[in-house]
# Entry
Amino acid sequence: MINEKYFNSVIVLLLLLVPAWATASDEPFTITLITRAVVFSLAAVGLNIALGLGGLVSLGHAVFFGLGGYAMGILAFHAQTYSALFEWPFLIEGTKSMPLIWLVALIFCSIAASLIGFLSLRTSGVYFIMITLAFGQMFYFFSISWPKYGGEDGLSIYVRNGFPGLNTLIPLHYYGLCLVMLFLALWFSARLKKSPFGLALNAARQSPERVETVGLNGKRLKLIAFVISGAITGLAGALFADLNRFVSPTMFSWQTSGEIMIFVIIGGVGRLFGPVTGALVFVSLEHFLGGINDYWHVYLGLFLLGIVLLGKGGLVGILCGKEKINA
Amino acid sequence: MSIVLIAEQILNGLQFGVMLFLMAAGLTLIFGVMGLINLAHGSLYMIGAFAAAAVASFTGSFILALIGALTAAAIAGAMVELLVIRRLYSKDHLDQVLATFALILIFSEGTRWVFGSFPLFLDIPRYLSGSVELPGSIQYPRYRLVLIAAGLLIAAGLGLLITKTRLGIQIRAGENDREMIAALGVDISRLYTLVFALGSALAGLAGALVGAIQSVQVGMGEPVLILAFVVIVIGGIGSIKGALIGALLVGMTDTLGDIFLVELLKLFTDPSTATSIGSSIASMAIYLLMGAVLVWRPSGLFGASP
# Structure
């Protein structure tokens, strides 16, 4: 068994060294690839708060990923066409500034997550999985049939949005930006897990009745976790859209929800670096197996089955063993 | 909007509904008896359609194609149950979702590997093609009427199977108390394999029947799968009656929602806006319906309250 702290340090080193190596040997594609992995990691870190800490099996996190993406797409679309979003009751224009876009994404995802969470938490178990899935489908079909922002074809943005002090068009700069956001989210979720809120949430997941008995509102704790989770995944969506300079309804599809969940589970549910490990492994598999064989999804499927049937709690669980409570 | 159009749309909704029922019945049985969320149910629908297309192009017989679809899906279902699903019963829903998601990947890409990426076609046999004139001079395709009749017949048969036969008693007992019927000497693992194969065969049959009016292609199962999930969640998981009512509700809402919403909105705005907004909302209508049902009754219309 590897000490989890060492394992996490290796992942961090990997995230720092791979782009350094890629820059030195002039392989910009590798940087794009690992940026993709980092953005997926961020989305999965978001889901891990609902899934790992709150025990909420949400098959609808694509809603937030997509909303984040469309927040970027719509704002940048209006900025590049010099048209206003709204002229009434007051003028709102588009923007090409990332911090502003992120703020909008966070606000809209929090609102959406509060509404979806409030309704979905009335149910539990399978019904919760299905109702979150249904919300995802609602957004998916709406985005397809709403022609103003591209409908089924999606929206292309010509130039990546800007961040003060950086040239986001340089892959390494954009990678750095995404990595900082990922580290912030990881730091935040580590703090959250140890905070009184995190402990209460953990208790609400394991034994809802006892938590209610000591006078805590378990549903409210779960709702807050769901909102935080959705907001972080939404931020990842905005970064993902900016990485591709493209948004489409695919971001809302249930396969996207499934993939975000796969990252968490491959890595290890509830483990701090589980989502990052999962996303890195997924993107590497996609790249290397996809290069060897067109039908690489077969192997991915077998790999996933193996992880589930082994039942050791994902890669982090297999490599580092069970989580130490006071680590 | 004429009466003929409305009647046609109602029949279309009915046809869609009964086909959804074939999918949903298997799904709800499997969940009710084994407590398993099976995302791979759509793959069995696809396997049925591909098997039917392959048999039909080989023998030219539609009946043989349907038998082929039933057999292939039942065998695939039984194999999957024996090899993989069996190990998932004791695991939580999260593991079940992931493992059956993995099965979708394996089945979809495996089928693409064998049959290629191009869609196959399954022809409606000559004796079922053409249209029939219904009372009120409504022309309606004969094949779709046959689908409605077949679906309703199967629903009735399934109802009899559940309420009147020994297997049905075991299935219902299995839904209520697994340990008890195992203690009473029922071979529970054989029952599980049987229920899974039955559900798979129904999905395969639905795939083959619908495959004749749509194209047979990889990925055809997943949209239907999600609708079938909506159906069983609306109807209440584990209830065959709920699955039937839910399927008809979803089929009708999906088919009628579009035209009625557009017509309704035309009263308020100009036609082009009405069409675009109306069809946007209609595409979400069944999910709105499901949300409303769940908020009103968190375990579905006919589900046991927790």
Summary: Residues 86 and 290 of chain B are 30 Å apart (CA to CA). The interface with chain A takes residues 31, 37, 84, 87-88, 91, 93-95, 97-99, 101-106, 108-110, 112-113, 222, 226, 229-230, 233, 237, 276, 279-280, 283-284, 287-288, 290-291, 294-295, 298-300, 306 of chain B (CB under 8 Å). Residues 3-220 of chain B form one domain. The radius of gyration of chain B is 20 Å.
